[in-house]
Amino acid sequence: MRALLRAGLVFAGLCLVWQAIVTIGGLPAYILPPPTRVFAALIDRAGFLASHALLTLSEILLGMLFGVLLGSLSALTLASFATARRWLLPVLLVSQAIPVFALAPLLVLWLGYGMASKVAAATIIIYFPVTSAFYDGLRHTERGWLDLAQVMGATPQRALLLLRVPAALPGFASGLRVAAAVAPIGAVIGEWVGASAGLGYVMLQANARMQIDVMFAALLVLGIMAVTLYYALDAALRHLMPWLPESLPASTKE
Amino acid sequence: MSETSVADPRVGGPPAVSVHAARLEYGGVPLFDDLDFTLAAGRWTCLLGPSGVGKTTLLRLIAGLEPATGETRIVANDGLALTGRIAWMGQQDLLLPWLSALDNALLGAKLRGDADRGGARRGRAIDLLYRVGLGDRLDARPAGLSGGQRQRVALVRTLMEDRPIILMDEPFSALDSITRWKLQELAADLLVGRTVLLVTHDPREALRLGHFVHVMAGRPARLGEPLAFDDQPPRALDDSRLLAREAELIRRLASAAEAPS
Prior knowledge:
The complex is a heterodimer of chains A (254) and B (261). Chain A is built from eleven helices and no strands. Chain A has helices at 2-25, 35-44, 46-80, 82-97, 100-111, 115-139, 143-152, 156-193, 199-208, 212-240, 243-247. Chain B has 261 residues and is an alpha/beta fold. In chain B, strand 8 (212-217) and strand 9 (222-223) form a beta hairpin. The two termini of chain B are 27 Å apart. The model of chain B is unreliable at 1-10 (pLDDT under 50).
């Protein structure tokens, strides 16, 4: 509750600064509309914005689903097979080195103007952080636990499933947090390059028609969506890994 | 010594374990070379020595956690393989933070995929946790337990392995002296009749618990003739023989520390 209040105060403060810039700078509404006009646009076009936001949100969520699934599978493969490490790691790095911006036109060409190309862009942008964070976690299982498993006569599959995967969950979780933060970028880039709906499309159209207030309203919705997504995921992860908050402050290892 | 302490393998008791001609290099320097060492069957063997002399490494070698090199041979006197007959308890409790005390105690069977028919194993783990005084903390995660409680869960986990050979590497060194004293008592009770190797840096602990107390020193490390006891541990702290022997042991340790390496 207090966090919500704090966020509200920060937002109100930013709006005040924004209003002050408009008033003092004497900026015309087509350069920087005052917050009042943006809120008016937000209310006037609520239904319109909501329907586009829903589409973008679906793209983001589907992109996260596929990106996380693919990323987890890749990380598990990398951790399990040395051959996979030799062949897949360079591919993984290349996948990160090519900006999604450069790929987006191709994705639209191949997958069309519909949702698929946007989901693909979001998947690609998420894939690397999830894979690398989870793989890192899988690589750094505490030596003593592996020794213990060895003396106990654990099978490699069970050691992976019962020991290394749970031990890597904190790393996986940080990958997911990054994913939640960058997934909207992927979806919006996809919409910019070629789309007939979605918040990215709304922004481009509004910009072309000098409806800067609508553009800002769409931006605001996107921002709120991204922040909500991040905090919802963060809360879910904390709930799923209750042993983590306890062990974080007591990081003094004996 | 090994002749007298070897149990008759035909009765199926825990075996004696012999290390022959052990050699281990660390960064090109031999930690020990041509080292012979015997764990008497069904007895506690304690290993003392200055830090860095290779006590832990020797224990890990027996546990199969360090690769044996050269002529090193590690055998049980009943002729069976050692694999699957050793339980290991390390310096840290190595409890998994996401599992409850009970699930940590049951870890070995889960890692091997052993079925627990009728929940007998689970029942035994609960019994043992009650015996070590953790009956009301079965569902507690390690972060909610004190250091002594965590080490007790680790002890139960070691017991649940139900192995004839137990290797313990300074299991009580991180505990305060009262907790340590209680846990020594408990371990001696629960591990009666097993072949136990206890690596420690505390002469008193070795004297309380050991049938045989070895001092390891030098580089490459050597083992002296052990102090031998024929009564059943744990010994009382005010046992007069303990005090006399402690003085002797500390003298040996001191001279071992001064010996040119």
